[in-house]
Design goal:
Shape: globular
Radius of gyration: 24 Å
Oligomer: single chain
Number of helices: 19
Distance between the termini: 54 Å
Strand order of the largest sheet: 5-15-21-20-19-18-17-16
Number of strands: 21
Largest sheet: 8 strands, mixed
């Protein structure tokens, strides 16, 4: 235990299992439609006013839920939209963040999941800072003692934790491994594997240790953090009483399900083959399976469960928690596209410069295939020989600044009607070590099957080329620097 945890002693009320009375607060829960979020708002709403946020929130289910839980106000909020996030957090005291983006958020989603998560965390941190939120309580992942060589999934969870705290709001990081409860995608994969295979192939990663925690216990600890000011700005590692290998969890799952399964160790199977095997057997998306498989090479064991020891909550055994699990529910996707790419950022430059540089570079980068017309309101892109613009982007000075520049997709031959706010944005991350380019809620005019095989690939190619251009600027390429100078005129036009 840490020194702080050793010195702290629970109050008589806590020791007896009764929460101390605290003043009611207004609490936002981002990711309220997820399996952790749904359970958390039921606990929080007993003592606080809850603002439940989710992209999948619709009016009819929200009205029915509010009738049953008057202290819960459901609000549709697309966390990819900084504007919606800022509005959603107005008047909130504390915000919970239970979001990850390994699953696609649009019918077409371009970009690595860690870049999407970075954008979401950056939005939430910015919005929390501007709304005067007192602190953020974040459910992340357990991190090994040595952070070097982390899997993409665990590195992303840690990056989210750090970026959200970059705007002045303290972050309470509740780090957990496998959360065992109905609706959990990781548990669903485990149950499907055991349920569908009479003989279980056990690659090397199935010997890695894990410390699963029951959903009810994870929710209880998240809720208690709200009452304990000493958790502010601290890391709280949590887990159940059992430390098991994944092979042990498969055996225990088979026992609970009443099935006899044979375990066949095959250490030579690579993570890539494991991903294909698990995806094929469980019918789970590769985008979800791949990061999870990569993370399993790390031991996921809590090093210091000081919060649980303080509260006297050791947690349920794995088998008991498993008995209450159910399959996850799925949500449909809207026919829109989202694309997020991480870009290098030259020293001393900001988002406004990045936007101007992109506009200056694009005609050169596409070798004369595209012409860019600039005026005081934004940019228009033309194909050579055509009088009609392919895309029209209107600069939004009311939503832009040095750390974020926003352009609305306001028209063009390639832009179709869509629900939402189609936009392109460039933003810097808090420590200015890089930047993000992001397209949100874009509805293509082309038929979907043509768009995904043409324009969508074209966008990825353009952003890859632009990233290489920025890298050349950083490394002092004189040819790239001349384009930087040319961008200065566009910067003034964009305000």
């Amino acid at each position: 235990m840490s020194g702080a945890a050793q010195q702290a002693t629970p109050s008589p009320a806590v020791a007896d299992g009764v929460r101390p009375r605290v003043a009611a607060r207004r609490v936002a829960v981002a990711g309220a439609t997820g399996f952790v979020g749904r359970s958390l708002i039921q606990v929080l709403s007993k003592r606080h006013a809850v603002v439940a946020l989710g992209r999948g929130v619709s009016e009819e289910p929200a009205a029915a839920s509010e009738a049953l839980e008057p202290s819960v106000r459901w609000r549709r909020c697309d966390l990819f939209s900084l504007y919606e996030t800022e509005k959603a957090l107005e008047g909130v005291d504390v915000a919970y963040y239970l979001v990850h983006s390994m699953m696609p958020s649009s019918r077409l989603t371009q970009g690595h999941f860690e870049d999407l998560d970075l954008l979401l965390a950056d939005n939430f941190g910015r919005a929390a800072g501007s709304a005067g939120i007192k602190r953020i309580i974040y459910l992340g992942g357990l991190v090994p003692e040595v952070e070097e060589g982390l899997s993409r999934h665990l590195a992303s969870r840690l990056e989210v934790e750090r970026v959200m705290g970059g705007y002045g709001v303290p972050v309470t990081a509740v780090r957990a491994g496998l959360v065992v409860g109905r609706g959990g995608s990781s548990l669903e994969i485990l149950v499907r594997l055991v349920g569908r295979l009479p003989a279980m192939i056990c690659p090397r990663w199935t010997g890695s240790l894990s410390q699963p925690i029951a959903l009810d216990d994870a929710v209880e600890l998240l809720a208690r953090c709200l009452d304990l000011e000493e958790t502010t700005g601290r890391v709280c590692e949590v887990g159940g009483p059992d430390v098991l290998s994944y092979r042990d969890m498969m055996r225990e799952t088979a026992r609970v399900m009443g099935k006899r399964r044979f375990m066949i160790p095959i250490p030579l199977i690579t993570p890539g083959l494991s991903r294909l095997w698990v995806s094929m057997v469980t019918q789970s998306p590769k985008a979800l399976v791949a990061p999870l498989i990569q993370s399993l090479r790390h031991p996921m064991v809590a090093k210091d469960r000081w919060l649980q020891e303080k509260l006297g909550l050791p947690g349920k055994p794995f088998a008991e928690a498993l008995a209450d699990s159910l399959r996850a529910e799925s949500l449909g996707q809207r026919p829109t596209a989202r694309s997020v790419q991480r870009l290098p950022l030259p020293a001393g430059r900001d988002a406004l410069w990045l936007t101007a540089e992109f506009a200056a570079w694009l005609p050169l980068g596409l070798r004369g295939l595209v012409r860019v017309a600039r005026n005081e309101t934004g940019l228009r892109f033309f194909a050579v020989g055509l009088p009609w613009p392919l895309l029209e982007l209107t600069f939004r000075p009311d939503r832009s600044g040095p750390d974020r520049a926003l352009l609305e997709v306001s028209g063009g031959l390639l832009a179709g009607k869509t629900v939402g706010f189609p936009r392109l944005e460039f933003r810097t991350i808090p420590d200015r070590s890089g930047a993000l380019a992001a397209v949100h809620d874009f509805g293509p005019r082309l038929p979907w099957w043509i768009y995904t095989r043409t324009q969508a690939y074209g966008h990825l190619w353009v952003m890859w080329r632009f990233g290489r251009h920025l890298a050349r600027i950083i490394h002092g390429d004189p040819a790239a620097a001349t384009e930087t100078d040319r961008a200065a005129t566009i910067t003034s036009a964009l305000g």
